[in-house]
Amino acid sequence: MKHTYRTAAAGLLALSSCLASAAGFSWISVPADADGPDLKGAVWYPSATPPAALAVGPFTLNVAKDAPLQGDHLPLVVMSHGTGGSVLGHRDTAAALADAGFVVAAINHPGDTAADLSQQMHLAPFFSRPRDITRLIDWMTRTWAGATRINDQAIGLFGFSRGGYTGLVSIGAVPDLKLGEAFCVHQPDLPFCAELKGPLPPLPSADPRIKAAVIADPLSVFSAAGLARISVPVQLWASEYGGGGVTPEDVAAVRKGLPDAPDFHSVAGSGHYSFLTPCPAPLAQSLPELCTDHPGFDRAAFHQRFNTQVKAFMRAHLAAP
């Protein structure tokens, strides 16, 4: 919970670099329903159409916008960003997966995204975020224009930071939000802290359609007992130095608590935000907390290795082509 409002700027990182990719790309909108407001997002997918420059605000994406989808029986990966982040925060990873034969869908979590921080310091996102993921899967497998070409038996999840929390809940972990009181020692005025003292709503249910998960530097409010219900394969990533309210000890506890040993990767020299897309020079100057890595750490080179490992894990467990 020690995420500051500066983490809202993480959404800008989503737009920060132009990466070579042949991925198809489309904006999406999941309509509001009884479980929540509309969800704005994006989909990357296999396409034979050559990419072209796409201006998004002051930045450029290299994608085949609204190009025809290529392939059938395609595995799906859904993405959950960190607090104050955005739909495009891990777009290099999304594009790499799409180039490898996956459909990848990400949404902005309402109230906890760069454009809307209204719920960031509240309890609400801990309950709404997993529901957002279930709604996204529903829409992608039933309503999206390419829904009939998705293999609904091959669904994976990628989650970073609070998105890592989201992913763990979505695959069966039961959070103990009272553990979050540790964050209140130094920030007692957070709305989260007052809300913890009242009655809590029912916890979100796991989504059994998710068959594998990549979890990077997760925000953890889980005991070992709370992690014991996870039964799907997990690739777990840990930064060396942590940040944003996530410590290496938190991730180590998740690793230890998982009932089956995860495919674990500890990234030497990395900080928490090293998992975000590399920053161009202007953003590096204006957002040093998010863009500056520890001396000697090459974020761009790391992301090449990271994306290769994520693709290999998803291929192994979702039977990608």
Which features characterize this protein?
321 residues; alpha/beta; Rossmann fold; 28% helix
Summarize the structure in words.
This protein is an alpha/beta fold and 321 residues long. The protein has one domain: Alpha/Beta hydrolase fold, catalytic domain (Rossmann fold). The protein contains ten helices and ten strands. Strands 3-4-1-2-6-5-7-8-9-10 form a ten-stranded mixed beta sheet, sandwiched between helices.
Could you give a short description of this structure?
The protein has ten helices and ten strands.
Topology:
Layout (H helix, E strand, L loop, with lengths): L9 H4 L10 E7 L8 E7 L6 E5 L2 E7 L8 E7 L10 H9 L3 E5 L16 H19 L7 E11 L1 H9 L20 H5 L14 E7 L7 H4 L6 E6 L8 H10 L5 E5 L13 H6 L1 H4 L7 H20 L3
Parallel strand pairs: 1-4, 5-6, 5-7, 7-8, 8-9, 9-10
Antiparallel strand pairs: 1-2, 2-6, 3-4
Helix pairs in contact: 2-10, 3-4
